[in-house]
Design goal:
Blueprint (H helix, E strand, L loop, with lengths): L8 E12 L2 E13 L4 E6 L5 H8 L7 E6 L2 E2 L5 H11 E5 L10 H11 L4 H14 L15 H13 L5 E5 L7 H16 L3 E5 L3 H4 L4 E6 L2 E8 L18 E3 L7
Parallel strand pairs: 3-8, 3-9, 6-7, 7-8
Antiparallel strand pairs: 1-2, 1-4, 4-5, 9-10, 10-11
Helix pairs in contact: 3-4, 3-5, 4-5, 5-6
The structure holds adenosine-5'-diphosphate (ADP) and magnesium ion.
Length: about 260
């Protein structure tokens, strides 16, 4: 599924406020943000700065209170929840800190789940789930349940599940938050590989070491974007595998100011 839109994600003055009793919390204030197909982006910032709120809107799990959101050039405000769910299933994969796997089901059954919603026939489902698990290095663990897998392995199952429908957009909210540093590197390497194969990826992280692995870093503070920079990503590959070294550089992203 290839996008021809210049932007896969386009938020225009998107605001999200929450009513908590007498209090109005502005989780996002008039955000402008555009992401092109093929980008690998980190959203970073302190706890409470609005990262998850932004990611949920980008993933159509939530809607802006005001402002506009275009996913793959389509304004989401005209879509009802059923249509949104269908688009989400077709175009977006999600990965969360807590993996969100079904505990009673095997790895391969977990990966099959989005294909059930997409109406893929059982035999084809199994075939594609097996390929996705092989791709994340879990061919030997297909029939293990989540409780029989390490944290890193569980996150790899979640990644396989997120990409099995070949989404245009992969969204990850603190995907390495529950992992040790060695496993974090493995998972980041998978993200890099998926991005090199064409998947657009947005990773929310408060960890600067994770953000260092992406090409573009957007920083949130108090519900606003305070910086949006391009950099040379650090390689997630082990240091004995030399990567083309470039000095770290930082420039303001040209797409920041949308007219
Ligand atoms: P982050 O992911 O950067 O930690 P969030 O996007 O989760 O931040 O939250 C941004 C702000 O919105 C915080 O002040 C948070 O308390 C508030 N918030 C988030 N979700 C809700 C909610 N469901 N109800 C009320 N306030 C919320
Ligand atoms: Mg969050």
């Amino acid at each position: 599924m290839q996008s021809t839109a210049p932007y896969l994600v386009r938020l225009e003055r998107a605001t999200r406020t929450y009513d908590a009793g007498d209090l109005r919390v502005a989780a996002l204030t008039a955000i402008d943000l555009a992401i092109r197909p093929g980008e690998l982006v980190a959203i970073t910032g302190a706890s409470g700065s609005g990262k998850s709120t932004a990611l949920n809107i980008i993933g159509t799990l939530d809607r802006p209170t005001s402002g506009r959101y275009f996913l793959d050039d389509e304004p989401v405000e005209g879509l009802d929840d059923t249509e949104l769910a269908r688009i989400r299933n077709r175009k977006i994969g999600f990965v969360f800190q807590g993996f969100h796997l079904l505990e009673r089901n095997s790895a391969v059954e977990n990966v099959e789940l989005p294909m059930i919603y997409a109406g893929v026939a059982p035999r084809e489902r199994r075939r594609r789930a097996e390929i996705a698990l092989e791709r994340v290095g879990l061919a030997e663990r297909m029939h293990h349940r989540p409780g029989q897998l390490s944290g890193g392995q569980q996150q790899r199952v979640a990644l396989a599940r997120a990409v099995v429908n070949s989404p245009l957009l992969l969204l990850a909210d603190e995907p390495t938050g529950a992992l040790d540093s060695a496993t974090t590197r493995e998972v980041l390497e998978l993200f890099t590989e998926l991005n090199e194969q064409g998947t657009t990826i947005v990773i929310v992280t408060h960890d600067p070491n994770v953000a260092a692995h992406t090409r573009r870093v957007i920083t949130f503070r108090d519900g606003q974007i305070v910086s949006d920079c391009l950099q040379s990503p650090v390689s997630a590959r082990p240091s004995y595998m030399p990567a083309a070294a470039a000095p770290p550089s930082s420039t303001t992203h040209p797409d920041r100011s949308l007219s």
